[in-house]
Amino acid sequence: MSEIYFNESVILLGVEANTKEDVLDQMGRNLEKQALVKDSFIQAIIAREKEYATGLPTAGVAVAIPHTDVEHVNRKTISMGILKNTVDFGVMGDDKETIPVQIVFMLAMDEAHSQLSLLQQLMKVFQNEDVLVSILNDQNKASIRKLMEEKLDFGALEGEN
After folding, report:
1. What are the backbone angles phi and psi of residue 23, rounded to the nearest 5°?
2. How do residues 79-119 score in pLDDT, each as one tens digit?
3. Cα dihedral sign for 109, 35, 6, 122?
4. What is the pTM of this model?
5. What b/e sequence results for 97-122 when a residue is b if at least 16 CB atoms lie within 10 Å of its CB, and e otherwise?
6. Is residue 77 within 8 Å of residue 157, measured between CB atoms?
């Protein structure tokens, strides 16, 4: 059971990309460079995104929550990508519709149940437009980290069996 890895090194600001695949590749490469995920992670997360869209039409700022299977993960982590410009992601549950996403929460969970727990907590964050706008406008990785640590109960995601 690993504790969740979340610090400034997994928060990417001003990500420049034209496609969701480019976003996923850049964010995945950052995790791979830090040995948080296996070299199969990027292909797996791109393939899963094609199959199961993760864009969410949230209040004010659209987000995406790409994730993939636990076997591609070395260490439980959340990566955040704040995009310079919006990138279209498919809408979760509706593969014919897209949404212009500006914040990507990439989940790399090492157990399926901790992923569900994290998704439930993230949904509370996504329902708060002020928090999303604050993340979008903040250029300081440390303050984004602090805000997310206040909003998410990382302890509840650790030590679950």
Report:
1. -60, -50
2. 999 999 999 999 999 878 999 999 999 999 888 777 777 88
3. negative
4. 0.92
5. ebbebbbbbbbbbbbeebbebbeeeb
6. no
